[in-house]
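Dear colleagues,

As part of the handover before I leave the project, I'm documenting each prediction I ran so the next person doesn't have to rerun anything. This entry is a single chain, and its sequence is reproduced below.
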Amino acid sequence: MIDHTLLKPDSTRDQVVQICQEAMEYEFATVCINPFWVSTAARELAGTNVGITTVIGFPLGATSTFTKVSEARDAIAAGATEIDMVINIGALKSGDNEAVKKDIEGVVLAVNKQAVVKTIIETGFLTEEEKKKACLLAKMAGSDFVKTSTGFGPGCATPEDIALMRETVGPDIGVKASACVRDLDTARKMVAAGATRIGASSGIAIAKGEQGKGY
């Protein structure tokens, strides 16, 4: 259930190779890395069951739909199997629901079922009503998952937010808890609240039942 995550801007090739090796050892769902490193991960993970998640419109969500679509297509061509895209947060808070929906839909259509699409709503910036609206728009646009956070914005994933998101989208799409999930107890609380995927740089600590230090 874990996306083993390395999204720091100063991540090196050796670090990317290392998390790929760790993901194979611990049988994580995917590695989650920046787009530049997708081709590296694809070589390291060839022939394994570990997927490759990359991030689109990250971390602000404020790039154009054209840019997000281009990023997604490029990532899939490089070997990505899952796409985590950030919504247009400013458009949502401006009440421009159609722009938000079309932004997500553009990526979903571009991916064309070649990869899983997860929509990051960045809960730390949103009111409860905005969280619900973002989740509904993502579902309407055809997203496979809704996801709490980039890990670079304010706040942390909480069981309360996961429960709200699960209640909003229903049982048919995934919910990913990301940001501040650093130990097994927290991960279990997220799953109990309705999460079907955990995004964490502390995946190994979670697997070992230890306290992690990541994001």
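Strands lie at 2-6, 30-33, 51-56, 82-86, 116-120, 145-147, 174-178, 197-200. The chain has one domain: 2-208.

All the best with the project,
I.
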